[in-house]
Amino acid sequence: PILYSYFRSSCSWRVRIALALKGISYDLVPVNLIKDGGQQFSAEFKALNPMQQVPVLQIDGITLCQSLAIINYLEETHPNPRLLPQDPKKRAQVRMIADHIASGIQPLQNLGVLKQMGEKKMEWAQNCITSGFQALEHILQHTAGCYCVGDEVSMADLCLVPQVANAERFKVDMRPYPIITRINKALLELEAFKISHPSRQPDTPAELRA
């Protein structure tokens, strides 16, 4: 497998965690979203992903874009350890939380949107994350165990950790979100989350390395 990734991309980080959890080795091709006006806009990369976004995973003779679609494919082809619970209700909760983050928070504060916001980008990102986290904290009151849904790591957790990192980067006050904070701390102690961390990637700038 070949993963086209950017060290700081939260969507790429989700996929790196999934690959690590499932023990799938891969070659990483860095795509710098800042350098040269954004390497994702090259004709070569547009041929891989017409949306010109990371991550892209080439695996089993196909090319996949969109982090949750990639994670679902990995789940179906490498079912252990599972990232979706067997219980249909818990499975629905996992997908709900993953979609809440991947559709309801992250796209609103990603690089392309922030460029449009100009000087207001920090305030915009904080507002998007805060409103999303207020809802998420309420949801987790009903679903959380050790992790987002019960005591097994799931696709929801793969979305949570990168989003908390974004919140910290945009200086969001995390004190109102004790459940999110507790779960994030527990997940960051797991090896798969450590090795996939943005501070430990081949394309991480020296000043940001762990």
Automatic annotation (TrEMBL):
Q: What is its EC number?
A: 2.5.1.18, 5.2.1.2
Ranges for domain GST N-terminal = 1-82
* Location in the cell: Cytoplasm
Keyword Cytoplasm listed = yes
Q: Which reaction does it catalyse?
A: 4-maleylacetoacetate = 4-fumarylacetoacetate; RX + glutathione = an S-substituted glutathione + a halide anion + H(+)
The cofactors it requires, by name, are: glutathione
GO BP: glutathione metabolic process; L-phenylalanine catabolic process; L-tyrosine catabolic process
Give the keywords, sorted: Cytoplasm, Isomerase, Phenylalanine catabolism, Transferase, Tyrosine catabolism
The main location is cytoplasm
Give the CC-aspect GO terms.
mitochondrion
Give the GO molecular function terms. Answer: glutathione transferase activity; maleylacetoacetate isomerase activity
Where is each GST C-terminal domain found? 87-206
Q: In which pathway does it act?
A: Amino-acid degradation; L-phenylalanine degradation; acetoacetate and fumarate from L-phenylalanine: step 5/6
Superkingdom per UniProt: Eukaryota
Question: Which InterPro entries does the annotation name?
Answer: Glutathione-S-Trfase_C-like (IPR010987), Glutathione-S-Trfase_C_sf (IPR036282), Glutathione_S-Trfase (IPR040079), Glutathione_S-Trfase_N (IPR004045), GST_C (IPR004046), GST_Zeta (IPR005955), GST_Zeta_C (IPR034330), GST_Zeta_N (IPR034333)
Q: Into which family does the record put it?
A: Belongs to the GST superfamily. Zeta family.
Task: Write down what this protein is called.
Answer: Maleylacetoacetate isomerase
Q: Which organism is it from?
A: Sylvia borin (Garden warbler)
